[in-house]
Amino acid sequence: MPITAVYPEPVLRRVEVTAPRAAVQVAARPADIKIATEHVSISYGDKVAVRDVSLTVQDRSILALIGPSGSGKSTFLRCFNRMNDLIPGASVKGEVCLDGENVMEADVSVVELRRRVGMVFQRPNPFPMSIYENVAYGPRRRGLNDRRKLNDLVETSLKRAALWDEVKDDLRRKSGLALSGGQQQRLCIARVLATDPEVILMDEPASALDPVSTLRIEELMRELREAYTIVIVTHNMQQAARVSDVTAFFTMADDRAGYLVEVGPTGQIFTRPSEQLTEDYISGRFG
Amino acid sequence: MPITAVYPEPVLRRVEVTAPRAAVQVAARPADIKIATEHVSISYGDKVAVRDVSLTVQDRSILALIGPSGSGKSTFLRCFNRMNDLIPGASVKGEVCLDGENVMEADVSVVELRRRVGMVFQRPNPFPMSIYENVAYGPRRRGLNDRRKLNDLVETSLKRAALWDEVKDDLRRKSGLALSGGQQQRLCIARVLATDPEVILMDEPASALDPVSTLRIEELMRELREAYTIVIVTHNMQQAARVSDVTAFFTMADDRAGYLVEVGPTGQIFTRPSEQLTEDYISGRFG
Amino acid sequence: MTANAGSIGRSSGAKPSLKGKASRGSILADRAATVVLWGTGALVLLILGSIILHFAMAAWGVVSLSFILDNPSQTTLGGIMPVLWNSIYMLALTMLIAVPVGLLGGIYMAEYAGDNIVTGAIRFAEESISSVPSIVVGLFGLILFVDDFHWGFTALAGALALTFFNLPLMTRLSEQALRAVPQDERSASLALGATKWQTIRHVVVPLAIPGLITGVILTAGRVFGEAAVLLFTAGIGTPPHYNFMNLDITNPTSPWSPFRPATTLSVYIYKLNSEGLGAFKNQIVDGSAAILISMVLIFNLGARFVGRVLSRKLTAS
Amino acid sequence: MASLTSAYPTSKLRAKPGLLERLDLPRRVVFVAAASMIIVVAMLMIFIVWQGTQLFVKDGYSLGAIFDAKWDPLADTPEFGILPFILGTIVVTAGALLISTPLSVGVALFLSEVAPKWAKSIVQPALEIFVGIPSVVWGWLGITVLVPFLADTFNGPIVISLPIVGTIFSMPGFLTGFSWLAGSLVLSIMVLPTITSVSYDAFRAVPQELRTGSLALGTTRWQMIRHILIPSALSGVLTAVVLGMTRAAGEALAVQMVIGNSPTLPEAITQPMTTLTSQITLDMGNTVFGEPWQDALWTMSLVLLVISITSVVLVRVINKRRMGS
Amino acid sequence: SSTGATPTAEPTDTPTPATPAAAMASVAASTAPVATPAPTTNCVTGTITTSGSTALQPLIQDAATAYAAECPGATITVNGGGSGTGLSQVLAGSVNIGESDVLANTKLATPDANSLVDHVVCRQGWIVVTNLDVTGVTNLTTQQNQDIWTGKDTNWNQVGGPDLPIVLIFRPASSGTRATFKKLVLNGMTEATGGTTLTLDTNGAVTTAITTTKGAVSVIGFSYYNDPTNKPLLNGLQLDGTDATIANVGSGTYKLAADGNLYTKGDATGLTAAFLQYMVGPEVQGTIIPKDSYGPISK
Ligand SMILES: Nc1ncnc2c1ncn2[C@@H]1O[C@H](COP(=O)(O)OP(=O)(O)OP(=O)(O)O)[C@@H](O)[C@H]1O
Ligand SMILES: Nc1ncnc2c1ncn2[C@@H]1O[C@H](COP(=O)(O)OP(=O)(O)OP(=O)(O)O)[C@@H](O)[C@H]1O
Ligand SMILES: [Mg+2]
Ligand SMILES: [Mg+2]
């Protein structure tokens, strides 16, 4: 997909966006919608953490969720692959559709869902096994045991995650934990890619990394966008501005329940937000 | 002390600074120097976390420490009241002078030091006792048991921390834990004030708070500056720009050891930093 | 300064030196408390040290290879081979049941248990057995296995009673080991589309192995020393000379058979103290106690060592 | 970018789970393993309750006759008052806790607040070894070392008198070392690791922020321990003491070996006494299944069971309190 | 059941006669177990278990070892547990032989007691012993014993000894030793209780306590008293001027003695019968019994 270089007016002083992106139409053709949430509310026990969020994510685009700490970004992100199921007391209401299919329904196989919607976490969390085994983990659990196919898959995934060259020499000997933070995070991305997902969720994937690794991950995200739909949570507004097509701004009300203030093309959110709250936030008045 | 309203050119777009501040001279008269560090290096075991930092803090001013995660800001902050002593394996080299006295020396009473150099933490940490007892805790441990004096002190401290009006009705019945996050943080500040410190250290004091509480704390800091020397660590550059007189920018080298890139009047750091690294950081190129 | 700044502003007078002697009393109290707390730590070591020294001296000249490998004798020092064998045999028999059941139970409690009445009952049961006196468990074994089942005093009855007694501990320790595995690892696996059981089987259990082994060994130490449970279940007597070539486990004369009485080392100590005869009685008890303590030491050091080696193997490159 | 799907068989989001998946065998298996504990406890309770109530049901004794001071199984109409044994268990346990609690809490504080890493790495394994030392070994140490020591050292009456006030305290000396004190001492060492490790956990559970919060205010470490740590961990320490108490009350062999087993309440800590467990070990083997005497022993076991279940409930109540506040 | 393998045998007795002759002998033995000692050892293979009295345990253990040495196919496992355990377990069928210091009918209900068969295999005697400090006392009369044990006399100088308080060490009220002593010497009088009395559950514990406790007195079995290690540490007393010897037990002049009873449920069969027969045979009666300080069965 050729990238049309229509870059909005610089958002913050001296922001140099490495790969300028097209402003994306939010109201897209329905066929292009990869994920849609409708009136999603999530609570932990009695406490509402996310209230009534409806938004859509285009296929092969990057949506960034920004907002102050505690506004429910991570909680909301986890509803896409139903990771909230794992949290005792968490309950999700509303609809979350993947390709038009509501994933919240009881007869949906979460295992299958999570294969199609991969996830990368804030802290790189490779398994304490060799690099090879880390990447082969998902495929193996899917029943892929053919040596050759596995080798191919591991190689492709590591290449896609831009890690192959750095690790190819001791793939099987080196533990995933012996890598640097940035490499570990790319390994985690490779591990997700190996299960052949359609959507990748990333919860502050670079916040534990150094500047160089961060740039690397951002670059990688832009590359992956060609083939995957990505939803990323970030605290770093510059990062959101740099990598995403669409930005959703969350904040929380007095009762501390998070809600969606506005969502729109990244350029627009950072230059002409329609809400005062958004403006206050991105201008650094709070947060 | 009259505040000269010479406020530097706005630093980031749309930043509305509530209380414009005077640009502070870094090279001040020695008599005004409250804290001075010389060649401070701090390591955890073999790992160097902070390398060779020398800076000075003026009396009754606010110094902000900014920098990416892991650059050693918190570690450095903790050397002012020797809280690093409590971390097994942490070792501090160099000199840290409070009013010209080196606090690192063996015969310094850390108890006395910490009374003069108070500290407020990232997560509000009130003790599990009544509001009154929380504030009276420090004075009591100093041997103050006179009912009347204690009552006065608790009231003054809570007033200074701008919490009195909200809590005065059930000072003795309500637990400190029953307050909201922002109130808890102000309670922690009141608790520190009650021990009559000269310096107050704050490690991301507002990062766990909602926007309104954050603004409140910032306002409070500006008030406290009239009587106290404050050192604050913050991730929020806008916050640093809003509240501090002087900003110090930390980053880390390849070996992940944190060091001081530059320190200077806040206005200058945010508009005309002398180092490319600082410029990259505050412009959001990384971090 | 603002209006509500109050009267006790920051003291502006001469500041006390940091090296001043402000609050001498509290500093002295702190020093005293530190000394006392160090003292308690030292006392524990002192007690343990003197116990070990006591048995080391008492066992000097008693414990030898032949003491460990010979049959008991009334006229000479003899050995403790059969009772030592029984201890090891009972340990193995007990662990054979307790380890798998405890591990699986631990998996349930750590990974599946919700907050419902059954789980509550399991927890209550777990806590209850842990606090039931061992003698009560022994008596329970006596009625159920020995008398009602007509097994008589048998190794099996003892091992089952021991299993009952130690199952909660084993379950608790496995649960702890499994819970110690960071949630991240589970999330990572589940987010990759692994099923819950796959996650447990391929990620959680392997990561918990050091903790699990430690749990097994600590339980083993407790099983090894237990006597009160066995007095009434596995029997208290002088074991015959065993013929280890007899591998027929259904034959009660075989030392491999669970259907025979099995006096263990700790029961033997109790027996010698109660009704022992012969010139060497006290030496034999001292020697046996020394061996028991050494085994406990070995179990502990072993647990630590194995745990460390395994976790290094699992985490390092 | 090429899809990787070729590597995998196709599967649908809503694919009907296979029979195996629906059965979820692993879950069932681990559940059964965990639930087996309920069965064990239920059996244990049923048996002990059944046996323990035979004295009332079959032998026709009243509850009042049991909770009486007179124990005379050899009388023409045997009397089975188990009160002396219950009281004995209480006093010997109390003695043990009195000795052990300060020491254990001290060690726990030492480990959690004071000890540097190296000291911790010595003391902690030492405590584990304490746990591992079997009770017969403690008993053996008791009769070979402690009992003769007590008898030799304090064989005269123990009298403390002040110049003017006169005698302020006097106590008969040890006739023999077999005594309340010997029992309590042995028990106190046996419960030391239990109380220590549970209180240690309680101290560790106090958030680090409270410690640093206090120290940053310029308090000494001891002030922090005394005013923040101990109040915060109090319920945990209480739990530890209750667990120690249960263990002490249920300990059989070691106590029986050193306590003298005299079926009367002692007048001083230098005198012999008896407990529920020691009476059970003493008489169980000599009595015959089904005779009232043995039924009375089972009733004592039932009392022990009740004590331990009560303590479990007590611990739960304490912990619920803690969660609540 | 001409092969001797009685199918109705309640205890898990596995008699596998080595030879037809042995099988015959075993059948014969089961009809008259103790009355006619066989001239030679009757070897039957199999496994039996015994439990019960700790006072009889040394003897049974030695006899079992000797029998097993002569008859390689036989395994006899000897457990302690106490007289009550022996009676309960033989009644429950958990063991083949239950040993008891006291008669079954004093412990069990009549129907149960009647279902057991008593085999007297030896006489056992007990001796009153004191700590070595109790010098000058070598004999206690029945009367003196009664005064001491009921708490009337509390100092050794009241019975001609040194000025030393008397420390009574009892065996548990349920034990055979205590019951026998109470019956034969104290005539059923009520014993003293309180702070100057100890109760210790076994001969071993009592022996240890006496050697370390000044002024202590207790009653232990001959086999423990005559143990070469114990004997020098104890001051053994005459009873009514009669020496506590096996010979005096045998002649009936020493009164603190009782039968050693071995019980089987119903008549003994197989190895059980053979072993009981061995117990009353010359080997045990002539050699092992004196060695272990028991008395042979008379006549
Ligand atoms: N497991 C949980 N149980 C209970 N409450 C939770 C849980 N996880 C999050 N919360 C609460 O839900 C709210 C939203 O949390 P969430 O982690 O989604 O926020 P976030 O926007 O991701 O914040 P951050 O930027 O700090 O990661 C918060 O108030 C939080 O305290
Ligand atoms: N207790 C500790 N033991 C060992 N290493 C530590 C410890 N605390 C901090 N470090 C390391 O020291 C370095 C500096 O940490 P520090 O917390 O001071 O950074 P920071 O600038 O405050 O970061 P953040 O913005 O995330 O709070 C980091 O690499 C960190 O991993
Ligand atoms: Mg989050
Ligand atoms: Mg920090």
- Taken together, the total number of domains of chain A comes to 1
Q: In the CATH hierarchy, what is the superfamily of the largest domain in chain C? A: MetI-like
CATH architecture of chain A: 3-Layer(aba) Sandwich
Helix content of chain A: 25-40%
In DSSP terms (H or I, runs of 4 or more residues), the helix count of chain C works out at 11
Radius of gyration of chain A: 19 Å
Can you identify the CATH class of chain A?
A: Alpha Beta
CATH-defined architecture of the largest domain in chain C: Orthogonal Bundle
Small molecules bound in the structure, each named once: adenosine-5'-triphosphate, magnesium ion
Question: Could you give a quick summary of the protein structure above?
Answer:
Chain C is built from eleven helices and no strands.
Helix and strand arrangement:
The complex is a heteropentamer, with two copies of chain A (287 residues), one copy of chain C (317 residues), one copy of chain D (325 residues) and one copy of chain E (299 residues).
Chain A: E1 33-44, E2 47-58, E3 62-66, H1 73-78, E4 90-98, E5 101-102, H2 110-116, E6 117-120, H3 131-141, H4 147-160, H5 164-167, H6 181-193, E7 199-203, H7 211-224, E8 229-233, H8 237-243, E9 246-252, E10 258-265, H9 266-271, H10 276-282
Chain C: H1 24-59, H2 65-69, H3 81-112, H4 117-131, H5 134-148, H6 155-179, H7 183-191, H8 196-225, H9 228-231, H10 265-275, H11 281-315
Chain E: E1 16-17, H1 20-31, E2 44-52, H2 57-70, E3 74-81, H3 83-92, E4 97-100, H4 104-107, H5 110-114, E5 116-130, E6 139-140, H6 142-149, E7 167-170, H7 176-184, E8 197-199, H8 203-212, E9 216-221, H9 222-225, E10 235-236, E11 238-239, H10 246-251, E12 257-265, H11 270-279, H12 282-291
Parallel strand pairs in E: 2-3, 2-4, 6-11, 7-8, 7-9
Antiparallel strand pairs in E: 1-2, 4-12, 5-9, 5-10, 5-12
Helix pairs in contact in E: 1-11
The structure holds adenosine-5'-triphosphate (2 copies) and magnesium ion (2 copies).
What does this structure look like?
The complex is a heteropentamer, with two copies of chain A (287 residues), one copy of chain C (317 residues), one copy of chain D (325 residues) and one copy of chain E (299 residues). Chain A has 287 residues and is of the alpha/beta class. Chain A has a single domain (12-282), classed as P-loop containing nucleotide triphosphate hydrolases (Rossmann fold), CATH 3.40.50. Chain A is built from ten helices and ten strands. A ten-stranded mixed beta sheet of chain A has the order 5-4-1-2-10-9-3-8-7-6. In chain C, helix 1 (24-59) crosses helix 11, helix 8 (196-225) runs antiparallel to helix 11 (281-315) and helix 10 packs antiparallel against helix 11. With 317 residues, chain C is mainly alpha-helical. The radius of gyration of chain C is 27 Å and the shape is globular. Chain E has 299 residues and is of the alpha/beta class. Chain E contains twelve helices and twelve strands. Classes of the chains: A alpha/beta (287), C mainly alpha (317), D mainly alpha (325), E alpha/beta (299). Chains in contact: A-B, A-C, A-D, B-C, B-D, C-D, C-E, D-E. Residues 44, 49, 67, 69-75, 87, 235, 256, 258 of chain A line the site of one adenosine-5'-triphosphate.
